[in-house]
User: Fold this.
Amino acid sequence: MTINEKQDELIEEFSMFDEWMDKYENIIDYGKSLKGLSDSDKNEDNIVRGCQSNVWLTAKVEDGKLIFDADSDAIITKGIIGLLLEIFSGQTPQDIATTNLYALEKIGLKEHLSPNRANGLVSMVQKIKMTALAYRAKQNQEK
Amino acid sequence: MSTPLNISEIRKEFPILEEKVNGKPLVYFDNAASSQKPLSVINTISNYYLKEHANIHRGVHSLSQKATSRYEEVRDKLAHWIGAESKEIIFTRGTTEAINLFASTYGSDNLKEGDEIIISTLEHHSNMVPWHMWCKKTGAKLRIIPINDKGELELDEYVKLLNDRTKIVSVAHISNTLGTVNDVKFIIDKAHEFGAVVLLDGAQALPHIKVDVKELDVDFYASSAHKMYGPTGIGFLYGKAEILEKMTPYHGGGEMIKSVSLEESTYADLPFKFEAGTPSIADTIAFGAAIDFLAKYGIENIAAHEKMLHDYATEELKKMDGIRLIGTADNKAGVVSFLIGDIHHYDLGVILDQLGIAVRTGHHCTQPLMHRFQISGTVRASFAIYNTKEEVDVFIAGVKRAVKMLS
Assistant:
């Protein structure tokens, strides 16, 4: 599935919820089911610091695809991380670097990506993009 | 405690309280960050720009003269409000700028290597970072008053920190995170025994208690208008005239000079020596309207109302499983900081926001204090004149709902 197909699927999933509470319960479920990171991976190298909640992100390449794993100390942030991994993890560096993220805005979670929220998510998306750019450059060199 | 205040009438003076947030009626419990503004303050700003605006202090024309007198009337009003002389009031952008002004001028004039500055564990970053900067520049050392588990300053330890090298003691009057009202009279008197100068960070105090700088005998007092129903971007530094006279200016520019030649300048008298450039005139005049607002309802009445809300909210929170109150000082202002179980403060804040309830979450610009309690942050509810017991009920129900969702 492409990144945009994944985004559209999530938008479809969240469109079933009329109530904010159902929407947030779904996000919390995403947070609870995300396996997260081991304590040793929650280190200074992997941290994306927010003012209030922190995010940790790791990346590796398997078969030319970027695999992300991530965690947060706050469950709602962790749930939104779950959505972002659903969208980006397992895609090629080229696709990650060149595809726009629109799903969170459509789902009505735009405020979680505003700098004021200070949850590290804006920086996490940036880090995903930067990681993809770095791996793309590396792949191009190897060609 | 009953109150002579008619809160439902007072609420009508705050149009923003009619707003809906996320489809729910707004419950605004983030007053320690910034209070809402009554119509009298809002109208003062718009009337000023509609009918009265001109630059102050220099113009000979009528508008300028009128704006100047209205601006200076606020200085007089504020001086009277805190028991100071008008020339001892320096207008600043807020508490942060006031503390930086003091640190930059008094600090650079007087601090040298080996001197000591005393602050406390519960300071806001704005009364911590300037001292880190000036210690680095001058070689002075920072000494810290510890706190006990209730969030009260350990005054025995404070007394032990004082010595002949102590030049400045700079502490909060009221803690923004914990609500602790510090025994500032004791702190001031002890510091003076060693010849140290005392600054109080009064950002959280002036909206809630009557402050008399002469009675306290405090040397410097910093505060902001926006937490006391006034506009943002305006605050002040009070300083004893005899100390201010000797201090070098902070910013150079227009309005603060006596005369300027190509080579050098001489400076104006107090308070203008410290007020370079065109100030925020409309906001300053509206600050006057905010003081009128406080005077109209009486600071003691406001404090009693806030205490009632604080006590009620505290009692209701205490009934909840896993509640941990952060800051349980014997003498507290209307601030309740708490955590529940292992729920992250951010998550609780997000759910309360969905319910239209505005609280503050995070470290509240007091990271060393968070380290002291070994937490990353708290949820903080803080009260003002327009808040009601019914809103506390909505808040408590909201917290219960959030806990259910997040557990």
Q: What stands out?
A: Residues 7-30+298-406 of chain B form a domain with the Aspartate Aminotransferase, domain 1 fold (CATH 3.90.1150.10). Chain B has two domains: 7-30+298-406, 42-295. Chain B touches chain A through 16 residues (CB under 8 Å). The longest strand of chain B covers residues 166-172.
